[in-house]
Design a protein that fits this description.
Shape of chain A: globular
Radius of gyration of chain A: 27 Å
Number of strands of chain B: 0
Largest sheet of chain B: none
Oligomer: heterodimer
Helix content of chain B: over 70%
CATH topology of one domain in chain A: Four Helix Bundle (Hemerythrin (Met), subunit A)
CATH architecture of one domain in chain A: Up-down Bundle
Order of helices and strands of chain A: HHHHHHHHHHH
Strand content of chain A: under 5%
Strand content of chain B: under 5%
CATH architecture of chain B: Orthogonal Bundle
Order of helices and strands of chain B: HHH
Largest interface: A-B, 91 and 75 residues
CATH topology of chain B: Helix Hairpins
CATH class of chain B: Mainly Alpha
Shape of chain B: elongated
CATH class of one domain in chain A: Mainly Alpha
Chain lengths: ~240, ~100
């Protein structure tokens, strides 16, 4: 039977509208010149996907999609865009790598054809229904079934997920932390923070800024402040070399 | 009933190809991350579609894990971008040519 005939009219209309929203959002992500516009197009795509989840009776995943993706990940993107100040339009016309665009289009078309051919020819339904538990068991909702599946069948993967998140958070903190003059601990006082700000770009300016405030700079590392002007820039240079 | 799985799979394939083209074309690292998110979402749509077709909740569980991995990937990736931007004044992939061996 033709799938479109079997579908009711509202379902088909919902799918068509969502497909248009998803694809236009995706095109907006790829082609927009401003990264903020790209992030907003990404939100559009994610909402379309969430509605398609609802259309397929995955209500919990639709809610999680909106909350986690549109609410957390895109906000994280926007935070970084604004924090780095790269929310200006970039020149998308320049092509420093010759032939990159045509090659990318050809490779994208090949991947699309490959996935479509795989979907069309592969035997989707192998007969192994309901391996990890059915979706329509009794009167339970999809949230109940999903939670039961995660906490029984996939419990080990769920624990690994917790470890992964902890590692990701620790890694992000380590990556985003400013290298402090006291190397053992993160004891940077608010006085030293603005000092180091402009000197991070070029390495030559560190000695000059190191001499301006020797008292505060030597304070977290060692209590003796008198020779701090002599010792701390040396240690600072060592830190620069070590990096 | 909902419409057939072939339409969902086709839409997911197109979205995946769009994300792949974006990763290959764009030079801004942040936009490249967003294109990776597009590809992950295409995979999620495929998982949910197969979950419905096969009547199996495992596909939805897998979408859950993909969400978590995507969140971790974005956190670490944006941390790397911020760390790079401290030393270089640009977020395009061409600014990272010093990472060549």
């Amino acid at each position: 039977m033709n799938p479109l005939v079997a579908a009711t009219i509202p379902d088909a209309v919902t799918f068509a509208v969502c497909a248009v929203v998803v694809l236009s959002g995706g095109i907006g992500v790829v082609t927009s010149r401003n990264p903020v516009h790209a992030a907003l197009s990404l939100v559009m795509t994610l909402f379309g996907i969430a509605v398609l989840f609802i259309e397929q009776h995955a209500y919990f995943l639709a809610a999680v999609q909106v909350i986690v993706y549109a609410g957390a990940i895109v906000v994280l993107f926007l935070f970084v865009i604004m924090f780095l100040g790269v929310d200006r339009e970039e020149n998308v016309q320049s092509e420093p790598l010759r032939g990159q665009r045509p090659l990318a289009l050809v490779l994208g078309a090949i991947s699309l054809a490959g996935v479509l051919a795989l979907s069309a020819t592969a035997n989707w339904v192998t007969g192994a229904h309901k391996v990890a538990g059915g979706l329509t068991a009794g009167h339970h909702t999809d949230t109940f079934l999903l939670g039961k599946s995660i906490f029984t069948t996939y419990l080990w993967a769920f624990e690994i997920t917790a470890a992964l998140l902890v590692i990701a958070v620790v890694g992000a903190v380590v990556l985003a932390r400013r290298p402090s003059p006291a190397r053992d601990e993160d004891a940077s006082t608010p006085v030293t923070e603005p000092d180091r700000g402009p000197a991070l770009g070029q390495d030559g300016g560190t000695a000059a800024t190191g001499g301006t405030a020797p008292g505060e700079r030597g304070e977290p590392g060692e209590p003796v402040t008198a020779p701090a002007g002599a010792t701390v820039p040396g240690g600072h240079e060592k830190l620069e070399v070590a990096r | 009933m909902s419409i057939g799985p072939a339409w969902y799979l086709g839409l997911a394939a197109v979205l995946f190809a769009l994300g792949a083209i974006g990763v290959m074309v764009r030079r801004n690292v942040l936009v490249m991350f967003m294109c990776i998110e597009l590809m992950l979402n295409a995979a999620n749509l495929t998982f949910v579609t197969f979950s419905r077709v096969l009547g199996d909740v495992g596909g939805q569980s897998l979408v859950f894990f993909v969400l978590v991995v995507a969140a971790a990937e974005v956190v670490v990736g944006l941390g790397v971008v911020v760390a790079i931007f401290r030393r270089r004044a640009g977020t395009t992939a061409d600014d990272l040519h010093e990472m060549l061996g």
